[in-house]
Design goal:
Blueprint: H1 3-11, H2 19-32, H3 38-73, E1 78-84, E2 90-96, H4 103-107, H5 112-122, H6 125-133, H7 140-145, E3 150-152, H8 159-168, E4 181-183, H9 185-190, H10 196-209, H11 212-235
Parallel strand pairs: 3-4
Antiparallel strand pairs: 1-2
Helix pairs in contact: 6-11
Length: 250
């Protein structure tokens, strides 16, 4: 389980803040001042075409996965987590649900290792397999198709963590110039255990370039990694959930 998912579980029972308005108000003017590039329209077209293609290709997997979740643990099908998008707009990022229904209410009081232990106990057998194979990420293609995300960009981050990192790293707001990505230049080049400052440097390098060639190369590299992870996940016992130590705070 990733740290951002564990944090979501802990705060789910608490009254949720309403960061969308303040984030948009504080950062939209800064991001709107950044000039759009002709290639941005081409990249958006590429996002729509490729995400629609990947969704069609993954339909034979998505339908059985949905039926498995419904048959083994009922509704809801999806996990929905708030993330900060372009210009500071907050959207709901989708994943297939991997925990038992109402797990958030039971896990809310716990933190740290106890939360990790209890989360493993709450993970369904189907959910453990989905995490091990990374198939729980497929619904994010819907986020790309409807314009919340891009195929390539800075990884989406939760509003509260964005506030913290924007205070720590003065250039962090520049990530809002583009849509967050299903995969990121920083993750492909450096991995998930890299410091946030170093990830930001790679994110800003992507924002400065954001060419079609670099986008396609990043997508291809990610596809190979996901395929390798999928094959490893098929060999992993379904009853043993795997912690994806992303080190990512969003």
């Amino acid at each position: 389980m990733t740290p951002d998912e564990l944090y979501d579980l802990h705060v789910a029972a608490a009254p949720a803040p309403s960061p969308s308005e303040s984030l948009t108000r504080r950062f939209s003017e800064l991001t709107q001042a950044s000039p759009a590039r002709p290639r941005d329209a081409l990249l958006r077209t590429l996002d729509m075409v490729l995400s629609a293609f990947f969704l069609l290709v993954s339909l034979p997997l998505m339908l059985p996965i949905a039926l498995l979740i419904l048959a083994t643990s009922g509704r809801p099908l999806f996990y929905r987590g708030e993330r900060v998008g372009r210009g500071g707009r907050v959207f709901e990022m989708l994943k297939f649900r991997t925990l038992r229904p109402h797990a958030e209410e039971r896990l809310g009081p716990y933190l740290g290792e106890e939360l990790v232990r209890r989360t493993r106990a709450e993970t369904t057998r189907v959910g453990a397999w989905l995490r091990a194979t990374q198939l729980d990420e497929i619904p994010q293609l819907l986020n790309v198709l409807r314009g919340d995300m891009s195929l390539v960009g800075p990884r989406p981050i939760r509003p509260r963590f964005f506030e913290e990192l924007a205070a720590e790293l003065p250039a962090y707001w520049q990530r809002l110039v583009v849509r967050p990505g299903l995969t990121g230049f920083a993750q492909v080049r450096r991995g998930y255990e890299t410091s946030m400052a170093e990830k930001l440097a790679h994110d800003l390098a992507w924002i400065a370039d954001r060419s079609v060639r670099l986008s396609l190369r990043t997508v291809a590299t990610t596809a190979l990694r996901v395929l390798a992870q999928f094959l490893r996940g098929l060999r992993r016992p379904a009853g043993r959930p795997r912690d994806r130590g992303h080190g990512e705070r969003g």
